[in-house]
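Attaching the record inline, Q. Sequence:
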Amino acid sequence: MIQEKTVFIIPGFRHKPTDKAYKTIANILKSEGYFPIPVTIPWKQTTISENTEYFLKKYKKIETKKKYILGFSFGAMIAFLASTKVKTSGLILCSLSPYFKEDMTKLRFNKTSNRNKDFTTLNFSRLAKLVKSKRILMLYGTQETKALIHRTKDAFHKVVSKHKHLIPIQKTEHNIGDKRYLNTIHQATRELL
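Structure, as predicted:
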């Protein structure tokens, strides 16, 4: 049987889909009629571009009427990059990491690291125009870093969609397991997707 609505859940850097927060998100989505597919990303010695290609192989294998992608932090970067290559019914970017080419110019970083070299090739302004998602939710905690908040707000302005929402989560840090974050995901997926 082909599922009606499938959500791929991409965890943050070095997180696993078996972590409590992602299990909770899967249960939240299931309660709202989605079929959650948690994705394990092989983080070790890989780049975000490689992680995205790995995810897309899994994404393309699943048959469903509607496909959504939810990602947190580096997982949100993967979700964002994937949405420039495949059409999705919805994109849920939770705390989009500020590691695109434009962000890297402001950071001191190890220029020999493959992961960091890859970041410098990701032109956010160009990629934002390629996003192929019908509905987009962008969430961030108001107590996250200024760079992350800036990247999320900039994404909201640059991504083209008639159905996009920017959702600040009050008194919340970079922690998708925070109850406020989880409750906001629940409310947003119920009301806005």
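The radius of gyration is 15 Å. The mean pLDDT is 95.

More tomorrow.
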